[in-house]
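Please review the protein record below. Let me know how this chain folds according to its tokens.
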Amino acid sequence: MDGGTPAGNGPWVRYGRMALGVLAVVAVLVLETVLLGDRIAADLRRITGGAPDAPAQAVVAARAPSPPAEPAANGAVAGVDLRPLDTCRDGATCPVRLQVRLTGPGPAQVTWRVRVEDLCTGARTESPDRRLPVPAGPGGRLDVVTDVVLPRGAALAVSPLVTAPAVAVGAPMLLPARPECTVGAGR
């Protein structure tokens, strides 16, 4: 020793002790955050008057559309088809093409409507009847381009329903193509 500072009290030793103290405090805070982070955040929200955490929600596949009571073909109606012409979203207008295939020359008019089923809630709605003349020709067929107003819903099944000259229903158009529902208390 040269007599300037007592042994063990040099500047590096003091800085080392301070650094160890800071590291210990940081380690305790990190450990506390890792182990109790969610609880701390919830307690802080409760103290500051924030909303409590919402219960967890899960996304599950929507149930299948209800089987229709009406047949797919009946009497003068050989089949019914409904296809989107563009991307369709819930709560918006959806451009579609309806095709009604008839057996033979067919009647003078076809009456039809659209049935929408919410695959998450089971709620069903139907549009008002629409009546259109069948064009003259050898193979009775009605092709219609129209808009369908869709209700709000995470998973919808949109089905065409002919009510005259005979009752028949087409396969449902699913929106989205792989419908899913959110379940949980926060719904």
